[in-house]
């Protein structure tokens, strides 16, 4: 026997009940549950996007306002390849006596000092023996490991880190993780083609900044995870 029952609660439609008293409205309840879950996921997604966006603008502000200390002397200067003016800035600091030695980390194996020196203006002849080319590192993580090995080999405990301003937060994170006891002074370089003011108006700058921000978040997460495997690199020959 099947009879029709009208529920007083306006939230429910009229349902049919068979002789066993089982509601034939399962599909309605499942659909409602799916809608509720979908709304929750949508709200969570919007919140995550807002947090990510706020973090991006905070990151951009940090990049733009990175302080530069030109006076403090350190044991070493470390310049990371991969952008304009980094090597020239590192060698200029060495010429000014801001450190004993300079490591240029991440140099292509096909590049030697004779070739690299041609890109640097007014380079004294006696400075070459104070400069080491690091050919091992292929990314920022390996830059930090290569630099740590070189620092330990030379008995250094302080360094001036030279890289692009937009690359500095991630570089500092990697270097501090690799050398927690070392004194690290950031020395950002500001490439002319990177637009720090109103960066969102320039597609190239915006894409680079967003990419660097996402990499910074991943690096920060990796440093927080105790089970993440360590990385080792070979000594440069």
What is the CATH topology of the domain at 76-224? Answer: Rossmann fold
Contiguous helical run count: 6
CATH architecture of the domain at 76-224: 3-Layer(aba) Sandwich
DSSP summary, beta strand count? 7
Q: Report the oligomer.
A: single chain
What is the beta-strand fraction? Answer: 5-15%
| Backbone structural class | alpha/beta
Would you state the CATH class of the domain at 76-224? Alpha Beta
Query: What are the secondary-structure elements, in order, as H or E?
Result: EEHEHEHEHEHEH
Distance between the termini: 89 Å
Cα-based radius of gyration, to the nearest Å? 29 Å
Please give the structural blueprint.
Blueprint: E1 3-5, E2 15-17, H1 26-64, E3 76-80, H2 86-95, E4 101-105, H3 113-117, E5 131-134, H4 140-154, E6 158-164, H5 168-178, E7 183-189, H6 203-224
Helix pairs in contact: 4-5, 5-6
Question: Could you characterize the architecture of this molecule?
Answer:
- This protein has about 240 residues and is of the alpha/beta class.
- The chain has a domain of about 150 residues: Rossmann fold (3-Layer(aba) Sandwich).
- It has a 5-stranded parallel beta sheet with strand order 5-4-3-6-7, with helices on both faces.
- Strand 4, helix 3 and strand 5 form a beta-alpha-beta unit.
- Helix 5 packs parallel to helix 6.
- The radius of gyration is 29 Å and the shape is elongated.
- The N terminus is likely disordered.
């Amino acid at each position: 026997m099947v009879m029709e029952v009208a529920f007083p609660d306006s939230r429910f439609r009229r349902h049919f009940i068979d002789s066993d008293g089982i509601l034939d409205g399962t599909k309605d309840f499942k659909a409602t549950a799916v809608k509720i879950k979908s709304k929750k996921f949508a709200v969570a997604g919007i919140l995550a996007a807002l947090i990510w966006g706020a973090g991006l603008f905070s990151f951009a502000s940090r990049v733009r306002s990175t302080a530069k200390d030109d006076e403090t002397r350190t044991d070493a200067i470390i310049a990371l390849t991969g952008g304009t003016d980094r090597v020239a800035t590192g060698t200029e600091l060495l010429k000014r006596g801001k450190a004993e030695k300079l490591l240029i980390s991440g140099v292509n194996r096909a590049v030697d000092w004779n070739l690299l020196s041609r890109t640097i203006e007014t380079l004294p002849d006696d400075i070459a023996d104070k400069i080491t080319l690091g050919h091992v590192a292929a990314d920022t993580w390996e830059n930090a490991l290569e630099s740590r090995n070189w620092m330990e080999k030379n008995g250094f405990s302080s360094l001036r880190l030279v890289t692009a301003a937009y690359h500095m937060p991630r570089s500092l994170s990697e270097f501090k993780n690799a050398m927690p006891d070392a004194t690290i002074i950031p020395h950002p370089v500001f490439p002319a083609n990177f637009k720090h003011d109103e960066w969102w108006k320039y597609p190239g700058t915006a894409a680079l900044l967003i990419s660097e921000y996402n990499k910074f978040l991943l690096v920060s997460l990796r440093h927080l995870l105790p089970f993440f495997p360590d990385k080792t690199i070979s000594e440069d020959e």
